[in-house]
Write a sequence for this structure.
């Protein structure tokens, strides 16, 4: 028994040494397999090299085999297939003591799905290499890209070669009629100016009644401006009311000067019509916003009445904005017709703009440019009957000359009460209004009173006999 116990330790020692030898052997075999696998993968999938040129462009350099195939004139195997690295690559670097960030979006295009699959499988390695490469850039290298051409002549030629001969045809000159180009200038839309002058008169009356103060509203004319330029010049905060004017397409806008709005609110509540200094960052108060809606409600009613001779407008408020950034009545390069009205309240003044996109007046352009329709409708104005009734009821003093006699100046001087001047009994008299002879009449008696019977109407300018 003792001999068996003494023999056990050598046997245990021999087992541990065998385990060590087995572990070393497994490690060597695994390492050999990894090296062999990497060698085989490199032969089957040659690595693609990323090259950064002097202008900061990142180019994926094809392996020799692919390059040889390209030189041999191999055509694309199929349609373009794209793969985007998501999320974008973000790196930071120091510049003049400040931390700068660079975000790059990378997208790969290939002509076969196998290449895209290879990019996906090697995505982590590609992203890591791109991150290391971009993090080594200097700030000047990154910023210099904007000064270089976005596309070189070689790239243009390559695109033309790929697109085929259709794009390489010489450009053809097209006729362009400068005289026929539609431009909106003052005087080209006379009817529009007449309508808005009528609107200014009506709006002045209603606005004066609203604030219970005497004020003046003057139409200063129409100006054509680019939408982007006009909106950029508006104050911030602004008072902008977007309105839909059916049946005109799109939307129109009223822009009220914030300082003028303060004047009107002060006068509405019994003040002297003075507005304190408005801070540039102070927005409109709730009271000013509600009062602006009230002013626009009157403006919409007066505008619909002014446009009645040419179109029946149905104006409906859409929204009220404080910033021009949220106004989308037209594109930045489209033309706006800015109609400005100057409002004078005492010694202070401001402006209200009625803004029409050029496209909105297309259905009425011929009418607004001619002025004929307005003259035709003005002939049957609704106030004509009332004016006729008023003239018919006006009081006019009428007199009749019964007789005339010629005497000398001496006899006229010697006349005294009780003297008799002989005349012939009148058979006719002339009826006059002021010094204008109107009718010839016969003298007589009616119902016990002296009267005249009209016998003839005198023509204008006819002298009485």
């Amino acid at each position: 028994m003792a001999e068996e116990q003494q023999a056990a330790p050598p046997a245990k020692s021999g087992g541990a040494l065998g385990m060590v030898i087995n572990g070393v052997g497994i490690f060597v075999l695994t390492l050999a397999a990894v090296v062999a696998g990497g060698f085989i993968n490199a032969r089957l999938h040659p690595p693609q090299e990323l090259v950064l040129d002097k202008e900061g462009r990142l180019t994926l350099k094809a392996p020799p085999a692919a390059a040889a195939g390209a030189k041999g004139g191999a055509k694309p195997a199929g349609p373009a297939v794209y793969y985007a690295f998501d999320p974008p690559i973000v790196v930071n670097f120091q510049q003049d003591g400040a931390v700068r960030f660079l975000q790059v979006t990378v997208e790969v295009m290939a002509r076969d799905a196998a290449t895209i699959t290879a990019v996906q499988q090697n995505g982590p390695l590609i992203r890591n290499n791109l991150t290391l490469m971009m993090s080594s850039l200097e700030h000047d290298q990154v910023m210099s890209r904007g000064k270089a051409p976005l596309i070189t002549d070689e790239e243009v030629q390559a695109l033309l070669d790929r697109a085929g001969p259709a794009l390489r045809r010489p450009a053809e000159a097209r006729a362009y009629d400068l005289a026929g180009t539609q431009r909106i200038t003052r005087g080209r839309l006379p009817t529009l100016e007449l309508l808005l002058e009528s609107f200014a008169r009506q709006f002045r009356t209603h606005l004066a009644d609203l604030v219970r103060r005497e004020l003046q509203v003057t139409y200063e004319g129409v100006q054509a401006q680019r939408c982007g330029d006009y909106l950029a010049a508006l104050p911030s905060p602004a008072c902008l009311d977007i309105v839909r004017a059916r049946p005109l397409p799109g939307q129109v806008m009223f822009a009220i000067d914030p300082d003028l709005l303060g004047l009107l609110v002060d006068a509405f509540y019994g003040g002297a019509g003075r507005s304190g200094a408005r801070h540039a960052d102070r927005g409109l108060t709730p009271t000013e916003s509600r009062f602006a809606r009230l002013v626009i409600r009157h403006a919409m009613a007066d505008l619909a009445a002014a446009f009645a001779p040419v179109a029946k407008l149905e104006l409906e408020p859409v929204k009220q904005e404080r910033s021009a950034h949220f106004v989308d009545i037209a594109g930045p390069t489209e033309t706006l017709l800015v109609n400005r009205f100057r409002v004078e309240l005492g010694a202070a003044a401001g402006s209200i703009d009625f803004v029409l996109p050029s496209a909105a007046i297309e259905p009425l352009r011929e009418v607004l440019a001619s002025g004929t329709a307005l003259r035709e409708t003005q002939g049957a104005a609704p106030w004509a009957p009332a004016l006729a009734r008023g003239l018919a009821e006006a009081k006019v003093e009428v007199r009749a000359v019964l007789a005339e006699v010629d005497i000398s100046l001496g006899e006229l001087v010697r006349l005294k009460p009780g003297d008799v001047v002989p005349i012939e009994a009148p058979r006719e008299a002339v009826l006059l209004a002021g010094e204008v002879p109107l009718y010839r009449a016969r003298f007589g008696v009616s119902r016990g009173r002296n009267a005249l019977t009209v016998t003839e109407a005198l023509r204008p300018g006819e002298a009485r006999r």
In short: Residues 2-44 form the longest helix (43 residues).
